[in-house]
Predict the structure.
Amino acid sequence: MSGLAFQGLKRGLAVVVAEGRAVAPLASWRAPFASASDSFTEKIWGTQPHPGWEPPKKLPVPPAIENGKMVAIDPRVIGGKKCYPLIISAVVPRPIAFVSTVSKDGQQNLAPFSYFTAMHDPPCVVICVNRAAHRNGGKKDTMANIDETKEFTVNVLSEWFLEQANHTCGNYDEDVDEMALSGLTKEPSLKVKPPRVKESAVHMECKLKHKYETKGYNGEDTATIVVGEIVMFHVNESVAKKTPSGNTYVGLEELQPISRLGGNTYGRSRECFDLARPDRDWQNR
């Protein structure tokens, strides 16, 4: 069922760095703040932390960090399972994939996963699906369905339906339809059988491209890394924007994405800034 312990919610703060080769082109991508929806009126665009910095000057380090001692932790000594709270609190913030699948018999499943990233050529998503502890290490319904049908959809999670999404991650029985249970709406897909989540503003229809089984220190299967090729995008017109060159991108203010932090803590992308990459000429200065 669930791909992560998605129980509870603490209102956190996630700072997002928008990457690009120059600040000005990036800034021109953004729609004026006044165009954001009325329900999302807080200004989110700020300045970088140290706008006056020039290389190779050193930046100030918090005294507690500068004077603190590093604690060495050998994962083989503590064991893989005890690495869980360490890894999910250290690798932050993480996007959340809201994954819809269907079994070969037509049973619907919906679950969130925060071991999630993506690539663009060809466009693919990468999701890690852990084994189910409540099933004695057996596969979660999401992974079992992907194995059977080789298809799934990823729906981007936004604030306006967060509590409904949270309700899908219980350790429910295999025959439970989490989308119906949480009151979310099924939207038919165009190229795959699993439905999309209508409440989401960005959907990705995916077909299995690769998968890699991982084994723990005891030799048992612990997770599957799934690489799914995106065969169709669906972007709600209210979040769809255009770059100066005419390429589609998703507006951050309108999307209101939620990120996973450590434990049961999540973050809103409410304070963001642009930071240009250094020019190659710096290496010759």
